[in-house]
Amino acid sequence: MSQVQIVRSFIEELSKNSRKHPDRISVDKINGSALSTAIGLPETPFPKEEFKNEEKKVHIIAKTVRPPVISASAEVSTSSTILELKESLAPQLNVAVTSLRLLHKGKPLVNSKFLADYFDPEATEVSLQMFLLQSS
Amino acid sequence: MSVMESKIKRAEARLREDPYEGHQMIRTLVNRQVMSKKYDDSIALLYSGAKTLFELEQSGSAGDLSIYLMDVFMKASSSVSMDNKAKALALLGSFPSEEGSKKQYVKKLLEWTNCTGPQGDRDVHASVGIMFAKWGDPVSAERHLVLGNEKCPAFYAQMLFNWAHASKHEDPALFIGRAVLKYLLVGSPADALQCLTKFMQLFERSGQSPDETFTIDGIRIPAYNSYPYLNYLHLLVLAAYRKDKETYISLLQKYPKKPEWESALAKVEDVYFGIRPVNPQPNILSNLMSSLFTNPSGGGNAIDLE
């Protein structure tokens, strides 16, 4: 019996039953020792150079929505945090980092997230909406 | 400009003139601030100083200030707010692989964020996992990727695909099987399937077209005559989702267990299919003779190697 035939017969068998296990169990039910279960390593050494070369830059243009329209731009790595992006933009605008709010397609950007979490990894230029909060 | 902002600017300038002097200056300033419980000021100074030192490729000193920042977060009982987390993750991303203090920083970061939940913060686990992969330590990366956020299955798949692609002769299932088993072990067949699907997309794009494809649960399953254990992994996840013991036992007959997967599969069998390992009946006389005449060896059960 070929592999394809074996898979076909198993799929037919499995299709007769519905799913019983949830997609994910709640975090407090995770068995800590399960995380440490040994799985034999491949012989091939891990190619760490592949990841080092994957750093990409993106050109960000941020503009205020309401007039007077003010803009700032920065070239940053996609692995930078939103906080780091704000740290690049704030000096151009002469404002504190905490006064800056950035949105992408109407969605607020969270400081602890990364640019790669919000933008297409292949994008080379991204436009953002910017709000400058009044400092008290 | 506030007093603190001007202190930060002066410290940055000193760091650029003389990184060693600047580092010592920041430490001295922060020590005083911490003693006076001015934690916000010390956090700002440490973060700015560490970032500048990383830019100047003074990673030893940068690592020292980053670790101090973690200590201040814990001393001040600082909440794992978005801003504090952002600072911590920005510094994490700056550590080069050759910097010796990176693991200590990770340890403190995890200690600080452990309070957010039973397994800590998912975003932090994701970032730590990704950084371990970049530092060339996939085994450490895996432990965090399985506890990480929604972007981890795809990253984990890419990591394992890169590794498999570097191999000339090893079965690709040995690589992606690691993720499938680990996700099943933490009770997440959805992530196991997502990771496996992403791996198979990369595998196909590399020129490995399947011999046939099937659909079940709205999911596309590629089947390969030349890669039986890639097929097995799909069937294993589907059987686990259904807690289908009979089908699993049939699977075992068609796909003998890989020795690398024995320990993990024993636990998967228990959790999903109710199959428990059979303990041999103790031979009391044999055990007594053995203990009198030989040194006791290590236990025969799976040992944590990590």
Automatic annotation (TrEMBL), chain A:
Domain Ubiquitin-like, by residue range, is: 58-118
- One Pfam short name: ubiquitin
Recorded hits in InterPro entries, A to Z, give: Ubiquitin-like_dom, Ubiquitin-like_domsf
**Stated name of the protein:** Ubiquitin family protein, Get5 candidate
The species this protein belongs to is Schizosaccharomyces osmophilus
Lineage of the species this protein comes from: Eukaryota, Fungi, Dikarya, Ascomycota, Taphrinomycotina
Automatic annotation (TrEMBL), chain B:
Q: Which InterPro entries match?
A: GET4, TPR-like_helical_dom_sf
What domain of life does the native source organism fall in? Eukaryota
BP terms from Gene Ontology? protein insertion into ER membrane
Pfam families, per the entry: GET4
Q: What's the protein called, per UniProt?
A: TRC complex (ER membrane insertion) subunit Get4
Similarity comment: family membership: Belongs to the GET4 family.
Signal peptide (from-to): none
- Offer a single GO CC term for the protein: cytosol
